[in-house]
Design a protein that fits this description.
By secondary structure, the protein is an alpha+beta fold. Helix content is 42%, strand content 22%. It is built from 21 helices and 21 strands. The strands form four sheets. Strands 14, 15, 16, 17, 18, 19, 20 and 21 form an eight-stranded mixed beta sheet that branches. The protein has a five-stranded antiparallel beta sheet with strand order 5-4-8-7-6, with helices on both faces. Strand 4 (192-201) and strand 5 form a beta hairpin. Helix 3 (98-169) runs antiparallel to helix 11 (373-420). It is elongated. The relative contact order is 0.09.
Length: 696
């Protein structure tokens, strides 16, 4: 529909900004108005409702009473909010019912008392249990350490005897004559797999003699090279034995637990060291676990040598990254107790004992969760018992408080109904005491508020929330003030033609859907809808409160409308639901913002040349084939923020000088915005880019 002239627009009645709310909703306006004293005179007496008090709700959170007497009234001073200066805890308890307070207090007493008992008992029980576990772990560690030290010492002594026997048995270098069976057989040495004798020459370890257990090799179907390669890989570590140090390593091969021991050895005029490979079956028997305890032994580099879980031995698991290894290395004594956490965040209680042989350490550990399982079970059962006691107590208090609080709760429900705007109360007196008097007052008050709510609803149909707030505080006066505002006009293209093909009911339904979408865009960007003029929308930024980006907010609203319209049009394209195209005009300038009218009838709006220019600019969209046009004054506020296309200067009615107009394509940083007028037209006319290019 073609836009009416600016002068006609001013005469049109603005549509209400607030939807009508039912009488049951007392919050349609944020603060109810106060009846004027002049309205209650002898010629116009107060309603004969027989109630002695009435509400003066000039402030939503406060209540003051107005007393009627002899057809006149006096207003008592308003009380301050009783919880205004209270702490958040006080405010929380202030609004609780008596029943809830009783239940809460009893519950807190029971919870605190029983929880304290449970906590103290569990704390000492847990500490005692932990101490006993550590002592038991230390005892087990001492026993395993003594047994393991004896086993390894015996192994070393046996290896020395075997090495002496090999050295004295023949002067032939067995490393070069390994094919001679009788000189290369240690099958008589129980538990040994192989023995290597190295001599040091020029700081380098050279193999002098070696001997194998052929029975073991045959059983495992192993080649001698497997053992040789295994020893050679750790030769650098074994070489430290040349200086008098005993080295013990985990040399397990193919899931066969093997122990390698190296120690210094003198042979005639040469010095060297012996490396002995042996089975670990006897040692591992000492580390078997029958309960929740894990027993293991670590080498000097943190590798597992023996473990109650054999897979840890096969895999040569390293505990070097665990805190327990660091604590063992840092401990100045040869035994101790530690608590540590593994990679899976499991906490263990452990005791350790250093063997004093090959830097080996025996550790006994217990998962804290399993060790304290019974403690936790006792604690859990105590809490269950506490819950049972608490529920029984709550039930008793609830039954007792029901008779005490039932009349009060009825009044609470009545007050909630009044808060929701339901003023017809059905509560009845249950006693003649103070609560009964209060009940009667509530019923009479509801009748008076019902009448007042009708007036309030009528007032709320003609103002926006912001203006209503100002009006209710008495800050709106006849007249206005000069302000710099951004004025926004939008209009549907060819609305008259569309209306001719639609039924009136369809037109109303369409406008409601369209206005809902567009007004939502205005509200999102902080604008105020000034009025609806047929299918047109007039909105303002900066009329009530101004910001530094009013113009930018108006343009963002226009861009948001463009996107919303694309979605809105997806379900349209028929005769009854035609595609919608709109034009938007934006101008920034000085206007007079304020109340226009008389003392009896006021309307808040903005007037001035800037408003007229915004309306004219909106109409130019049809001539330019665009959807968003802004004036030069608006563009100066948002320069370098938007991608715009300068249109040709045009003479606007009412303006002597030609006006420079800009078409807004989108934000500079928006990659999805159209890059040219042609792309813009393809969007707003629902055409392809190719057709829009031909159109241009």
């Amino acid at each position: 529909m073609r836009k009416q002239t600016a002068s006609k627009k001013k005469k049109q009645k603005a549509m209400p900004l607030l939807k009508r709310k039912s009488s049951t909703n007392s919050k349609s306006i944020s603060k109810p108005f106060t009846l004027k004293k002049s309205k209650l005179t002898k010629s116009n007496p107060a309603p004969e409702s027989n109630f002695e008090t009435d509400w003066d709700r000039s402030d939503e959170s406060d209540a003051s009473f107005t007393t009627y007497s002899n057809n006149t009234y006096t207003q008592e001073p308003e009380d301050k909010d009783p919880i205004e200066n209270k702490s958040w805890i006080s405010r929380l308890f202030y609004n609780w019912s008596i029943r809830l307070k009783l239940v809460f207090i009893i519950s807190i007493i029971i919870i605190l008392s029983i929880s304290s008992i449970i906590y103290i008992a569990t704390f000492f029980f847990k500490n005692d249990n932990e101490l006993r576990i550590k002592e038991k772990n230390l005892e087990i560690t001492e026993l395993i350490a003594a047994k393991t030290r004896s086993d390894i010492s015996n192994l070393i002594r046996s290896a020395k005897l075997a090495a002496i026997s090999l050295s004295q048995g023949s002067a032939i270098n067995l490393a070069d004559k390994s094919e001679i069976t009788e000189l290369n057989d240690i099958s008589s040495e129980e538990g040994f797999i192989a023995i290597y004798i190295y001599v040091m020459e020029n700081g380098q370890a050279t193999l002098n003699q070696k001997s194998y257990n052929p029975i073991f090799l045959t059983e495992k179907n192993w080649d001698k090279s497997v053992l040789d390669k295994n020893v050679k890989s750790d030769l650098k570590t074994f070489s430290s034995s040349y200086k008098g140090k005993t080295v013990v390593l985990n040399s397990s091969i193919n899931k066969e637990p093997l122990i390698a021991v190296s120690y210094p050895y003198k042979m005639e005029d040469r010095s060297g060291f012996i490396v002995a490979l042996a089975k670990m079956d006897g040692i591992l028997n000492s580390f078997k676990s029958s309960g929740i305890t894990d027993n293991f032994m670590l080498t000097q580099d943190g590798t597992v040598l023996a473990h109650s879980k054999k897979e840890e031995v096969y895999n040569k698991t390293s505990f070097k990254e665990l805190p327990i290894y660091e604590k063992i290395q840092a401990s100045p004594i040869n035994n101790g107790q530690v608590k540590y956490e593994n990679a899976n965040k499991e906490i263990f209680l452990a005791s350790f004992k250093k063997l004093g042989l090959g830097n080996l350490t025996v550790v006994t550990s217990v998962p804290e969760e399993k060790a304290m399982e019974e403690v936790n079970n006792i604690q859990r059962r105590n809490f269950y018992l506490m819950i049972i006691i608490l529920n029984v107590s709550i039930l008793i208090v609830f039954i007792y408080s029901k008779n005490l609080t039932k009349p009060i709760l009825s009044l609470v429900e009545a007050s909630k109904k009044i808060e929701r705007g339901e003023f017809q109360l059905d509560i009845k007196e249950t006693s003649g005491d103070e609560i009964g008097v209060l009940t009667r007052s509530f019923v009479h008050m509801g009748k008076g508020l019902s009448e007042r709510d009708k007036i309030k609803d009528a007032f709320g149909k003609f103002v926006s929330p912001e203006l209503a707030e100002k009006a209710l505080h008495g800050s709106m006066r006849l007249g206005g003030e000069r302000k710099e505002c951004t004025i926004f006009f939008s209009d549907i293209r060819n609305f008259t033609g569309m209306s001719e093909t639609m039924q009136p009911e369809d037109v109303v339904e369409f406008l409601n859907l369209y206005m809902t979408e567009m007004v939502s865009c205005v509200n999102q960007k902080g604008g105020i809808v000034d009025k609806f003029i047929g299918d047109s929308i007039m909105a303002v930024w900066g009329a009530i409160s101004s910001t530094d980006n009013d113009t930018e907010s108006a343009i963002e609203t226009a861009l948001l409308m463009r996107k919303s319209l694309v979605v809105f049009n997806k379900s349209r394209g028929t005769v009854k639901k035609p595609f919608i195209r709109i034009g938007i005009g934006i101008n920034t300038g000085d206007v007079i913002a304020g109340q226009i009218g008389s003392e009896e009838r006021l309307e808040f709006t903005v007037i001035g040349d800037a408003v007229n220019l915004a309306s004219r600019v909106e109409g130019l969209n049809k001539e330019f084939g665009t959807d968003i046009l802004i004036t030069e004054s608006a563009y100066s506020k948002v320069a370098n923020k938007y991608n715009v296309k300068k249109m040709k200067a045009i003479h606007v009615k009412g303006k002597k000088k030609p006006q420079v107009i800009y078409a807004v394509l989108g934000r500079l940083n928006d990659s999805q915005a159209p890059k040219s007028i042609q792309e813009l037209r393809a969007i707003i006319f629902q055409e392809s880019k190719s057709s829009s290019g031909a159109r241009a």
